[in-house]
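Appendix B, record 7
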Amino acid sequence: MRYDTRALRVCAALALLTAGTAVLALGTGSYALSPAEVVRTLTGEGPPGADFVVLGLRLPRALVAALTGFGMGTAGAVFQSLTRNPLGSPDVIGFGNGASAGALVAIIVLDTGAAQTAAAAVYLLAWRRGVHGYRLVLVGIGASAVLGAATSFLYVRADIGKAAQAASWMIGSLNARDWTDVRVAALGPLVLLPVVLVRARRLTMLEMGDDTAAALGVPPERSRLVLLAAGTGLTALAVAAAGPIPFVAMAAPQLARRVTRAVGPNVLPAGWTGALLVTAADLVTQWLTGSALLPVGVLTGVAGGVYLAWLLRGERRGARL
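Structure tokens (predicted):
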């Protein structure tokens, strides 16, 4: 595997920033702790009562924030590279909505899922002697609209208790996360990240076009299908753990590429950028409200809207030039 030295340094810096932000979040709340007290608690030498608060209540939330952010950032890098489009993130092209619809079916109707079904449908609808990036984006946007309508229908048909439970989850929330959610969020990075990393070089070649990739010995459709499945799995597991936290998958790869200044998908930097974004958003929501009740998706949605406006403004200015 080839690697870029600057990208590795960026990953190390992002990992340290994520850990530092998580330590601050672990000490924030009605039972406030200094960063030094949090570290001592994590090593088993904290003040009385801190073990239950930090290890039992706050640590699962912090780990879910970092792991879901990492999964969403990685999935965003995969999809943006496959589509060769900065808008080709799973929350834009319908895979996030597919996972959300499946979770709502599980909450409201029965125990099932729809993320993989949505991914397969988008892929097949986009097929026309191969799958091209712009077609995948357009079909995905249409699928996202259909799945959004299905979600609204499920809300209308549900009883008030289940609808309230589903609504709080659909915003993208880290509230009341436990160790079961940590295990779900960890499955993506542990199982699917190696698949993406092994095929990262193929992903870079696919960015150059199918003809070029085939000439270099990379089977385009088979490679794309495997990467699409891995990215879908990363998205589904992240959404299952914390809900559809908006704009992280879209923003993380773009920010990572600007920091590393490296060509290619920047899979690991995008993952660590996503982890830092969600962890920092969780910390800011607690600082703003003085509690952990505000869903983190509210903040990422506002920040993502500002980022999208900035991105579109840059594209418009580039077109004028």
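Remarks on this record: Residues 110-131 have pLDDT under 50 and may be disordered. The two ends are 39 Å apart (CA to CA).
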